[in-house]
Write a structure and sequence with these properties.
466 residues, alpha+beta, 6-stranded mixed beta sheet, 22 strands
Length: 466
């Protein structure tokens, strides 16, 4: 039986975490077993035998937590080969033989194709490589469906609908046609199976446009799913494709519906525009062509996934790093639909930004006659709002005037992992030639959270000769 919000709160102790105190993003002790529990991962990208290690870990963890279902939001086969997809089927059977958990209960598969599954073998097909005829998922118009049914032992359709413990799940495959424009009609066709009094769950590969991660996010769709789901305040969309980190609170968006980033089981994205150690973002600002001097940050040492427990209209989201066998932070709890404003702008104002510890210092290392490196320790969370990046500013201080000469942003070294203090976090290499006017300078570093809210700066004064 489902429990209402009032009964839920009676049995729960409330502790504020990474967002809105007493509401969204509050970690709570659950009063009893959930109505429904399912695992959700995306972007498995199986390519070579042996690289299913994190996949097995995820499946095994979901099994240990008595998950009722497991969702995979696409990009299973990295290069679009049947042999890659088949290895997922083998991993599933190894952990969930006969689609059953440890206690013999049925565990539902909630899988969809992503763009790699459908288009990964495009060049093989285009070049008429003999491997394509034998092993490409999309070699013919009918093969994606045939392969799916053969491996996963279930009917294929571009959109599917399933019921798990009284909750509705809908999935939309990446296809050759316009991906998700048919969702609105599919929802209308199956409206009798969508209970307006409880959440229902929808998965596609790419993020619905202008939802989780924001309007600049890499990998968003064309907007068709956002338009369709906006008519259903109890809808919860779960998607991947972008590979963005689950340490970022923008992974949950709530507006006309709810949208959740499932992140990636293969690697975490560093595609953020205008960061010195990022790799750019074709969906973000692309106007700055300046060469970066700071080494690009790497984030292939983490594999993210979530476990969602449903208590009435409350979702408890547990964030896992299966590569490092760690929780990524305290659980998030959200109401569906949200009971008050949960926009990014509202949430950004609710908690204090990260701050440097007392005594934190900047170190400036001269690399050669033209370049210096700015180094500093990691900032600490305040109200569980962790540091995402740092703002480095060079200011000329002369004759009672302070004039900013240069400003840079760098992503925190462990932005994608469980929070741990570092003696040296991100650093930034600066060419002295980029500082227009030299003299008595103050270098400052400010910690910045995922919403762009800035903590207090630390300072270092130096003299730069012209």
């Amino acid at each position: 039986m489902s429990i209402g919000r009032r009964e839920f709160l009676k049995g729960a102790s409330v502790m504020a975490v990474s967002g809105i105190s007493g509401g969204c993003f509050a970690d709570r002790l659950m009063p009893k077993a959930p109505d429904l529990r399912f695992g959700a991962i995306s972007d498995v990208h199986l390519r070579t035998p042996g690289d299913e290690k994190e996949l097995i870990k995820a499946f095994t963890y979901f099994k240990s937590m008595r998950a009722d279902a497991v969702m995979i939001s696409g990009d299973i086969a990295d290069t679009g080969l049947i042999s890659e997809l088949r290895r997922l089927g083998e991993a599933w059977e190894k952990v969930f033989p006969g689609n059953k958990g440890a206690d013999g209960r049925h565990v539902e598969k909630l899988f969809i194709y992503g763009n790699h599954d459908f288009w990964g073998a495009y060049n093989l097909i285009k070049n008429k490589d003999p491997r394509a005829q034998k092993d490409a998922i999309s070699y013919t118009e009918t093969r994606p469906a045939e392969v799916w049914e053969e491996i996963f032992k279930e009917p294929y359709s571009d959109f599917w609908i399933k019921d798990v413990k009284g909750y509705t799940f809908i999935g939309g495959h990446w296809t050759k046609s316009d991906q998700f424009s048919g969702l609105a009609d599919f929802l209308k066709l199956h409206k009798d199976r969508i209970n307006p009094s409880k959440p229902f769950f929808y998965t596609q590969h790419s993020h619905p446009k202008d939802t989780c991660m924001g309007p600049w996010a890499w990998g968003r769709d064309n907007g068709a799913s956002t338009e369709a789901l906006s008519k259903y305040p109890n809808a919860v969309a779960i998607s991947g494709h972008s590979h963005y980190s689950l340490t970022d609170e923008r992974s949950v968006w709530q507006g006309a519906f709810t949208s959740i980033n499932a992140s990636s089981l293969r690697y975490i994205s560093t595609e953020y525009a205008l960061r010195e150690n990022g790799q750019g973002n074709s969906h973000g600002f692309c106007g700055e062509k300046r060469k970066r001097l700071t080494e690009r940050i790497k984030a292939n040492d983490s594999a993210h996934g979530i476990l969602i427990s449903v208590y009435g209209n409350e979702l408890v989201i547990e964030r896992k790093d299966f590569y490092n066998n760690e929780d990524l932070g305290q659980n998030w709890v959200i109401a569906v639909p949200p009971e008050k404003d949960q926009s990014f702008e509202y949430r950004a104002k609710r908690n204090m930004p990260p701050q440097f510890s007392a005594g934190a210092e900047i170190e400036i290392v001269k690399l050669d006659e033209d370049k210096i490196r700015i180094e500093f320790p990691s900032a600490r969370s305040v109200d569980s709002r962790r540091v995402f990046e740092y703002e480095i500013t060079s200011t000329l201080v002369e004759d009672g005037v302070d004039l900013v000469q240069l400003q840079r942003r760098v992503i925190a070294k462990n932005f994608h992992k469980k929070e741990k203090p570092l003696a040296k976090d991100a650093s930034c290499i600066i060419s002295l030639g980029e500082i227009p006017v030299k003299g008595n300078m103050v270098f400052s570093v400010r910690p910045v959270d995922c919403f762009g809210v800035k903590g207090s700066p630390i300072f270092k004064r130096i003299k730069l000769d012209s």
